[in-house]
Amino acid sequence: MKTQRIYIDTSVIGGCFDVEFAEWSNGLIADFRNGIFQPLLSEVISAEIGDAPENVQSVYAELMTFNAEVLTVEENALELADEYQKRGILSPNFYDDGLHIALATVAQADLLVSWNFKHIVHFDKIRLFNAVNIEFGYKPLQIFSPREVTTYGREED
Known about the structure:
This protein is α/β, with parallel strands linked by helices. The chain has one domain (4-149): Rossmann fold, CATH 3.40.50. The protein has eight helices and five strands, in the order E-H-H-E-H-H-E-H-H-E-H-E-H. It has a five-stranded parallel beta sheet, sandwiched between helices. Helix 5 packs across helix 6 (95-106). It is globular, with a radius of gyration of 15 Å. The two termini are 19 Å apart.
């Protein structure tokens, strides 16, 4: 069976050190460590991590050792992110959130995982992002929180 390629945004990495999210973020990182999933990262995450605390940067560095695929920002992703803006899905202040969605879409990620419930993991936003994605010839992007994706804490069926 093909290993699922999962794009994570910066919130998942930072979530490793947040009381509310640590259990699930660390579970997902363990899934990457154990080869259950393949991490997809990007230049956008790399830039955002540059200003993060050292412990967050350390998790990012570890992710890079797990056969991570690093996506570069190219014209087709910018075109999608710009279209999300034109349609008012996100305000200009949150352009990078749309760029995460666009990068994962163009790379045909199996999933995008985020803790950003306001701009990314939100039913109405997901429908709007995917309407644009389909219109531009891409498949819909599956978007979830780490809690829904990690194998951590699952009991045997």
